[in-house]
């Protein structure tokens, strides 16, 4: 203990005497430990922290698919056929529940608001293993079709709207014009399915009928000792034993192979969209920490040159090699400990900033917090940096030839901080840094290329200068009331200065609901009918112009298309490709839908594919009908799209006033420029790209600083050699070339190793990339070129300083 205290005091004095070295080492360690602590704390909170439910690891998300088939908008559903058969014969599950998240119109007195609620079957609360804070949850009878409507409030809604009044239970809450009895209040930590939900209503699972399939999101709980593979096998066997209607099944699940049931742990399912990006970030920050350790190790090795005589004197008066290692390593531990404390401060700041920069639907961010777990991560990172950055220099510094070290010779065979072996160690560390920098630069380049490709996809519309809004009427409102609202709003908008186009539709880009229909058409006149499945838009004239849809053939809707007679229809390129195969304009179909009553339908135009749910989605068949044509009307809610000449957001208040004047009961929500919705849809890849690019810049900085330090110290050690070269005729250009060659040789070695490792590591990034391959040539070419350019700049200063060496002074100094 006495020796430890002596070494601690010595380390503190040494750090105080070498302020420049101490500052450089602390800054490097603080950034490395801080970034590592923040990222690993986020990864733990999002991916590894147990769900806040009893035995949460037994909760699973259930869904089925027809392999090869594509569900609308990539939905993952369980059918009511599989559900009712499975709950009767389940041996792997303790139960199955249905859940869904919707926007509801909730009335508080005279005020109507759109709130997010969840429809859950009564079994969901039991599956989660939660108890209400007040009142009760739903009874099985309340989950039946036609039961009296009830509601459970979240703690947040209970406090915000009811002032945490215990007399709230038993009151009535109007949801979508229906009075619901408040029967319970949930605990504050219940955030199922996500933290947007502020109340829960019963979800009645539709009964099985011979001609109908009804899908839903499903939750299950595994029995003790059962794995997800067991549940999948049981569910698949039961699902394949059922006879289900082909038309409605393919409508929701697409056309594919025999049904397969999947079960995934709920925690994994919630975080699945962000998991690949977090794993990439974890790998990146690990490389940053290793580079920080390498830089500090090089600082220790370089500073050791000046301390060689001091250590030799200690050895001469009796200090053993182990004693010297202990002293040098203690200095590393002290620096790492201080860097760890500062790193915790940096990590805390980063963890508070991340929610502001992260995508809006970044899962489980509420579970990321400053706690003992974060402190443990910082402690482990600090200990790792102490060993990784200090142990090798400490061991190396204790090995030297005493006589040679005392006179400061460079060719001591014993090594120490001077000599060829020490120089090779510093150079090897630098090669590793360059390799790590290349890996991060390549990875950042791939994400940047992927993001650019994502933004460059033709989404089928122009998002600039477009304002969007969703307007809801009470569900009891007759179709005529919605039609009158649409007419009044569009007439006012089209006469507003600065508006160049306005339209309305049942759907618009980035709407979280998709209307789909299925119907038979003949691909070839007189040929057998083909059953189609298509996203179905009902729009007004002006909708296509407001969104600037790409018209490829024929024309778009006009006011004349609303008149009685043949119903007009637009189709998209994907519909033509999958179902028609040739020219579409002019094709007519009689009785397209069962309720048509001999209404004929004619295709009048073909538009480009609209990627409604994001640029990373595959195009789907789409059809368009004009609002007001036979059997096709917009009901319940409408999406307004307005094209302007100026900033669309400035039109928002006026749009709200126009809707309010058209119908005082209408509720307006989600008023936003379409360009904002498009930008928000790529929040996740943008966030991943920004984080990895930041790490890559930091890695580039660390590599360049490390190279500068190694070359500078190398030139300081070789002053006599440089003086001799200059004395026998070497020009300034020769000396500059010598230094640059040494620096670039190390850099190129690191580049080669880094590219080789990158070609393997980037294969694991495939899930995070869009439109580029993991071996993208541009990313693999740009990364080494950038590093080499920075390396030249890092070597330039030592090179010109070495070229300016006065031979006489250099020789005299030795």
Q: Main traits of this protein?
A:
single chain; 814 residues; alpha+beta; 3 domains; seven-stranded mixed sheet; six-stranded mixed beta barrel; 49% helix
In short:
By secondary structure, the protein is α+β, with helices and mostly antiparallel strands. The protein is 49% helix and 18% strand.
List the topology elements.
Layout: H1 2-17, H2 19-48, E1 59-65, E2 78-79, H3 80-89, E3 93-108, E4 111-120, H4 123-128, E5 134-135, E6 150-153, H5 155-162, E7 172-175, E8 178-185, E9 199-202, E10 215-222, H6 228-240, H7 246-253, E11 260-265, H8 266-271, H9 275-316, H10 321-357, H11 372-397, H12 402-406, H13 419-456, E12 466-472, H14 479-494, E13 499-505, E14 516-522, E15 529-539, H15 543-547, E16 551-554, E17 567-572, H16 573-580, E18 588-590, E19 600-607, E20 622-626, E21 637-644, H17 652-662, E22 667-673, H18 674-681, H19 683-717, H20 719-727, H21 732-761, H22 777-803, H23 807-813
Parallel strand pairs: 4-9, 6-8, 15-20, 17-19
Antiparallel strand pairs: 1-10, 1-11, 2-10, 3-4, 3-7, 3-10, 5-8, 6-9, 7-8, 12-21, 12-22, 13-21, 14-15, 16-19, 17-20, 18-19
Helix pairs in contact: 1-10, 2-9, 2-10, 2-11, 3-6, 9-11, 9-13, 9-19, 10-11, 13-19, 13-21, 13-22, 14-17, 19-22, 20-23, 21-22
């Amino acid at each position: 203990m006495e020796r430890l205290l002596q070494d601690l005091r010595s380390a503190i004095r040494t750090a105080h005497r070498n302020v420049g070295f101490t500052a450089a080492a602390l800054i490097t360690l603080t950034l490395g430990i801080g970034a590592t602590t923040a990222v690993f704390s986020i990864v733990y909170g999002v991916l590894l922290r147990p769900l806040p439910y009893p035995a949460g690891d037994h909760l699973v998300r259930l869904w089925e698919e027809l392999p090869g088939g594509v569900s609308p908008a990539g939905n993952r559903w369980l059918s009511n056929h599989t559900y009712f058969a499975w709950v009767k014969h389940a041996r792997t599950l303790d139960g199955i529940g249905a859940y869904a998240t919707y926007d509801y119109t909730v009335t508080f007195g005279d005020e109507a608001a759109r709130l997010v609620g969840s429809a859950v079957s009564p079994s969901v609360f039991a599956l989660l293993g939660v108890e209400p804070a007040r009142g009760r949850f739903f009874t099985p009878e309340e989950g039946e079709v036609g039961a009296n409507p009830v509601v459970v409030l979240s703690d947040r809604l209970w406090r915000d709207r009811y002032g945490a009044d215990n007399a709230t239970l038993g009151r009535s809450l109007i949801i979508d014009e229906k009075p619901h009895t408040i029967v319970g209040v949930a605990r504050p930590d219940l955030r199922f399915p996500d933290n947007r939900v502020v109340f829960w209503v019963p979800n009645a699972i539709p009964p099985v009928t011979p001609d109908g399939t009804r899908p839903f999101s499903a939750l299950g709980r595994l029995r003790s000792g059962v794995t997800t593979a067991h549940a999948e096998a049981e569910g698949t066997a039961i699902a394949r034993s059922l006879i289900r209607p082909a038309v409605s099944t393919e409508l929701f699940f697409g056309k594919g192979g025999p049904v397969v049931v999947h079960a995934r742990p709920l925690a994994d399912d919630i975080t699945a969209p962000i998991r690949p990006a977090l794993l990439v970030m974890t790998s990146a920050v690990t490389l940053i920490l290793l580079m920080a350790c390498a830089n500090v190790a090089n600082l220790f090795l370089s500073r050791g040159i000046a301390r060689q005589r001091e250590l030799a004197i200690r050895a001469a008066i009796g200090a053993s090699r182990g004693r010297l290692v202990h002293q040098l390593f203690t200095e590393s531990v002290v620096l790492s400990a201080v860097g760890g404390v500062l790193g915790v401060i940096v990590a805390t700041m980063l963890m508070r900033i991340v929610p502001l920069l992260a995508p809006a639907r970044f899962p489980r961010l509420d579970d990321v917090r400053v706690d003992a777990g974060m402190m443990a991560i910082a402690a482990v990172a600090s200990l790792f940096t102490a060993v990784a950055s200090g142990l090798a220099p400490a061991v190396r510094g204790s090995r030297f030839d005493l006589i040679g070290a005392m006179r400061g010779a460079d060719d001591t065979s014993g090594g120490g901080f001077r000599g060829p072996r020490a120089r090779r160690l510093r150079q090897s560390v630098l090669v590793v840094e360059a390799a790590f920098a290349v890996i991060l630069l390549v990875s950042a380049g791939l994400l940047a290329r992927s993001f650019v490709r994502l933004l460059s996809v033709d989404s089928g519309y122009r998002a600039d200068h477009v304002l969007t809004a969703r307007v809801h009427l009470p569900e009891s409102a007759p179709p005529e009331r919605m039609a009158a609202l649409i007419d009044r709003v569009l007439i006012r908008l089209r006469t507003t200065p600065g508006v160049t186009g306005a339209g309305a539709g049942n759907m618009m880009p980035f709407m979280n609901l998709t209307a789909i229909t299925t119907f038979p058409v003949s691909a070839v006149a007189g040929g057998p009918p083909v059953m189609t499945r298509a996203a179905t838009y009902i729009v007004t004239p002006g909708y296509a112009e407001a969104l600037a849809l790409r018209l490829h053939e024929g024309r778009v809707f006009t006011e004349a298309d609303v008149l009685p007679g043949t119903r007009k229809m637009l189709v998209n390129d994907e519909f033509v490709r999958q179902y028609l195969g040739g020219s579409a304009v002019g094709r007519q179909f009689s009785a397209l839908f069962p309720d048509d009553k001999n209404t004929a339908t004619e295709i009048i135009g073909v538009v480009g594919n609209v990627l409604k749910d994001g640029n990373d989605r595959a195009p789907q068949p789409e059809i368009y009908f004009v609002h007001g044509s036979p059997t096709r009307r917009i009901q319940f809610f409408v999406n307004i799209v307005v094209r302007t000449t100026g900033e669309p957001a400035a039109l928002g208040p006026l749009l709200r006033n126009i809707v309010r004047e058209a119908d005082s009961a209408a509720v307006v929500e989600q008023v936003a420029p379409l360009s904002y919705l498009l930008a928000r849809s790529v929040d996740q890849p943008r966030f991943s790209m920004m984080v990895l690019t930041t790490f890559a810049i930091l890695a580039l900085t660390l590599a360049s600083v490390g190279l500068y330090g190694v070359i500078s110290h190398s030139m300081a050690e070789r002053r006599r050699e440089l003086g001799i070269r200059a004395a026998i005729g070497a020009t300034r250009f020769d000396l500059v070339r010598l230094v640059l060659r040494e620096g670039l040789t190390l850099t190129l070695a690191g580049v080669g190793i880094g590219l080789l490792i990158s070609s393997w590591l980037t294969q694991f990034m495939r899930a995070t990339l869009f439109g580029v391959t993991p071996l993208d040539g541009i990313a693999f070419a740009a990364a080494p070129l950038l590093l080499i350019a920075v390396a030249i700049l890092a070597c330039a200063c030592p090179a010109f300083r070495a070229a300016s060496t006065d031979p006489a002074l250099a020789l005299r100094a030795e």
